Amino acid sequence: MHKIVLGLLVVFALMACNIPQKSQDNKVDVEASQSTDKMEWWRNDRFGMFIHFGLYSQCEGYWKDESIGGIGEWIFKHAKIPVDEYKELANTFTCENMDVDAWAKLAKESGMKYVVITTKHHDGFALFHSKVNDFNVVDATPYSKDIIAEFVEACRKYDLKIGFYYSQYQDWSYQGAGGNNWDKPYAWSKEGFKNYMDEKALPQVRELLTNYGKIDMIWFDTPGKMKKEESEAFLNLAKDVQPKIIVSGRVGNDVGDYVQMEDNDLPKRRPDFDWEAPVTMNHTWAYKRDDHHWKSAGYMLWQLTYSAAMGGNYLLNIGPKGDGSVPQESVNRLKVIGDWMKVNSEVIYEADPSPFVNAFNWGGITHKGNKLYLNITDWPKRQLSIFGLQNKVNKAYFLASGDAVETSREGEYLVLALPDEAPDRNATVVVLEIEGEPIVNQALVQKLDGQIILESELAENTTGRMTHFGSVKKWMKPKGKLAWDFEVTQAGKFKVEVITTGFKRMAWPEKPALWDGGHKVKIVVDEQEIKGEVDKDRTEKAPHDLYNDFKVAEMGTVTIKEAGRHHLELVAETIVNSNKAGLAVRMVRLVPSK
Ligand code: FHN
């Protein structure tokens, strides 16, 4: 891939900002991963399919006629099923409507380039023939054929890269392994875990990486309390057997080749490392009969194009039913995505990320040679303005139709004249042919409509807390602050709003969002200071967040007398944490006021 040459005319914003937060599980040695070229196909391809399939798929979210909360593949744990009883699910695993070839074909037709399948999830059941443990599809089920062998063959047929998911720490049906806290003999223990590593996990990973030819990725997950040597044992084994294999960051302890974002989370600012977002189509990974919270195809196209713009990969999940058939809801959505990719895939494959480090609310930009692709998913009606692109624009047109788009300049803004209706209501691509490599001003700048949006993820953050889905997580004590430098183009009087969100776990819709209000804060804008309470004066729909709304607190007004660079700080004086959410600031917003 080409390297982007960024002309950083204004670097202060960059220096002030955090990189997206990673969970403990996700940290990786970025330098090590970037020094290798084995990532090249992965960086070029950008789009993969995740498949969660196993014994749990048969439960469809029910155990003994009772609906069980949480994600489908966790039913074993959430319903506290005794291990012996859970294992009986193997007796009915007939996969009578499974067509693994069709899974791979679906991935191919949807424009996906790689597929990651659960070879063994946390329940401990293997979809492959293992010689070291008989809780596997061949030895324990009436289906009795090696599904992973079928999968590998199908992926090769459709020229898809092959990824194996393997739960290396959690194994709820093996004594001493991680995660089982309801069936006593199976609880984690130090010696038990060592035994599990030596007798099951490492030998199974060896089997997986030895018996099926070239494997492109191994997708480890939830390292839990594994020590660094233990993570390294998996890493080294994988690399010994398959030198070019890509190892996911959730192998744990800062080893691995790339960062997996938290499930369903996308960064607000472009990371400078390799990352991937694993994403569900509804709430669950494995099939659940009652989970009807399907994301729209348009939303998923936003996620795909946004991920590419942010330099990351999009791993979109399907959860086949217990009989192996793919839910029609998933097939329908993938058809829309596939059709879109047939016309627009050049904006994804081998495309460089956006030259801008900050995100846009209308979509995202990808880049190839002298072309910038504006992937517009949230249609801005009539005009789209982009601050800070310094290059001359030679030509602008819709990718799908070739029809010209009129552009003009308003100061540092490039303004595109657009029709009222989006030509493609899911995602319309406008191509800008520019002179030379993109040169951009990275400043955090006032929007053309006058608003100044200061996102927590873009702040200098001395709270000691990370952000989670864009909001500061667990800011429970009044220490530290958020601060931003920003560029004002239209001076004047502004209403100051502090926006907080609850933390709703997307995967568990039954659980209410945790949120606290009533915090006392101080806002300092240059030399002006206002104090107020952060509560919920009103709520607003949060863009691109399906599960949390914005709680807007009105703090008063400030006057910014001159255009130019300014500074804002949010300092907490008291923080309420009765719901264990604390001061979950998502952004400070300055809205022009008369
Ligand atoms: O616990 C798993 C979960 O079941 C699912 O496999 C996801 C996919 O990213 N990973 C873990 C939670 O992050």
Automatic annotation (TrEMBL):
InterPro entries xrefs: FUC_metazoa-typ, GH, Glyco_hydro_29, Glyco_hydro_29_N, Glyco_hydro_b
Keyword Transport: no
Keywords noted in UniProt: Glycosidase, Hydrolase, Signal
EC number: 3.2.1.51
Name of the top EC class for this enzyme: hydrolase
SMART domains assigned: Alpha_L_fucos
Pfam families for this protein: Alpha_L_fucos
UniProt key word Flavoprotein: no
Signal peptide feature range: 1-23
Domain Glycoside hydrolase family 29 N-terminal positions: 15-346
SUPFAM superfamilies from the UniProt entry: (Trans)glycosidases
Task of the protein: Alpha-L-fucosidase is responsible for hydrolyzing the alpha-1,6-linked fucose joined to the reducing-end N-acetylglucosamine of the carbohydrate moieties of glycoproteins.
Family, per entry: Belongs to the glycosyl hydrolase 29 family.
Protein name in the entry: alpha-L-fucosidase
